[in-house]
């Protein structure tokens, strides 16, 4: 827990804190960022906290608009980067101007980014580490902070169903429950889909290819048009293959609008597949990783590697 204390002390030293996260933010990135912002606001009302980035995850039912900070503010701030494994994935560069920097992450270590780092690959999610920081610091956890942090934990663990979920993760969720989360209301804010998406998932199920214990969903730009789907929305569909008996590895292969390259999400149950992601310039967790901007001619190679991986 000594790492947590160092982070708490650094936060206490600065009057303003800028919180950053990775590009194409998911709920863990947003939840850690907005959750930490709420925690600092609640416990240190005199500090200014800026959650920086672009609002590219369109869920007004859960998320709040992000902030802007001018250069003068950034220069005197402490930077905190959450849920980000490598330098190229930090969404904004302005953190480099900050007076000092902390990174909080649960991805496999790729490179050092900040002066101070807590990298805990045993944690189910970055939001879990942020919650543990709050618990260790004895901070008050408001229901708003708890909602954001739970959203990160719940989505990164596929509703507490993956291997990394353990007693430690549930202790953290128990603490968030004590903050007063209404789980029915909150889960609906996180998980309810538009009817359009729900119907697209039904159509997508019929396009899944089953190949031994490997299943994949390949959607072309034309498919997306016909299904009235954005690329981001199509990528999220990887989860529809999570619970198919006999399927231990699965993937989505999504063509970009211009038909020039593919974005791939790889998932598995207990089989290490981030080695495949890395081979093609991607990365991520052992059982949840991705490849961006893949040339079409390499798609069959990725499918072959996934099929053969044991
Ligand atoms: Mn994460």
What's the short version?
With about 300 residues, the protein is an alpha/beta fold.
Primary descriptors:
binds manganese (II) ion, 12 helices, inorganic pyrophosphatase (n-terminal core), 2 domains, 310 residues, globular, single chain, alpha/beta, five-stranded parallel β-sheet, Diaminopimelate Epimerase, Chain A, domain 1, six-stranded mixed β-sheet
Describe the protein's architecture and organization.
The structure is a single chain. Strand 10 and strand 11 form a beta hairpin. This protein folds into two domains: 189 residues, inorganic pyrophosphatase (n-terminal core), CATH 3.90.1640; 114 residues, Diaminopimelate Epimerase, Chain A, domain 1, CATH 3.10.310. The longest helix has 17 residues. The chain is built from twelve helices and eleven strands. The model has no long low-confidence stretch (mean pLDDT 95). The strands form two sheets. It has a six-stranded mixed beta sheet with strand order 6-7-8-9-11-10. Strands 2-1-3-4-5 form a five-stranded parallel beta sheet. By secondary structure, it is of the alpha/beta class. 39% of the residues lie in helices and 18% in strands. Bound molecules: manganese (II) ion.
């Amino acid at each position: 827990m000594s790492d947590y204390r160092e982070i708490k002390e650094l936060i206490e030293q600065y009057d303003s804190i800028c919180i950053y996260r990775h590009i194409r933010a998911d709920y863990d990135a947003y939840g850690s960022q907005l959750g930490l912002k709420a925690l600092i606001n609640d416990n240190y009302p005199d500090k200014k906290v800026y959650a920086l980035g672009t609002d590219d995850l369109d869920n007004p039912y859960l998320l709040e608009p992000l902030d802007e900070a001018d250069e003068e503010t950034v220069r005197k701030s402490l930077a905190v980067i959450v849920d980000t494994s490598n330098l190229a994935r930090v969404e904004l560069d302005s953190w480099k101007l900050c007076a000092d920097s902390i990174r909080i992450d649960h991805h496999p270590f790729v490179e050092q980014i900040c002066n101070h780092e807590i990298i805990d690959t045993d944690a189910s999610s970055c939001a879990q580490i942020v919650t543990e920081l709050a618990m260790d610091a004895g901070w008050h956890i408001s229901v708003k902070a708890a909602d954001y942090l739970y959203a990160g934990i719940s989505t990164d663990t596929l509703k507490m169903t993956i291997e990394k979920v353990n007693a430690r993760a549930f202790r953290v969720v128990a603490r968030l429950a004590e903050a007063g989360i209404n789980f029915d209301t909150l889960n609906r804010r996180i998980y309810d889909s538009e009817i359009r998406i729900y119907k697209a998932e039904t159509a997508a199920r019929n396009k899944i290819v089953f190949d031994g214990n490997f299943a994949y969903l390949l959607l072309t730009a034309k498919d997306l048009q016909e299904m009235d789907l954005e690329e981001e929305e199509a990528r999220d569909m990887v989860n529809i293959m999570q619970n198919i008996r006999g399927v231990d590895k699965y993937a989505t292969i999504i063509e970009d609008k211009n038909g020039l390259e593919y974005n791939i999400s790889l998932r598995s149950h207990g089989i290490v597949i981030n080695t495949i992601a890395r081979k093609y310039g991607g990365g991520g967790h052992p059982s949840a990783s991705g490849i961006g901007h893949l040339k079409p001619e390499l798609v069959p190679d990725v499918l072959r590697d996934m099929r053969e991986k044991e």
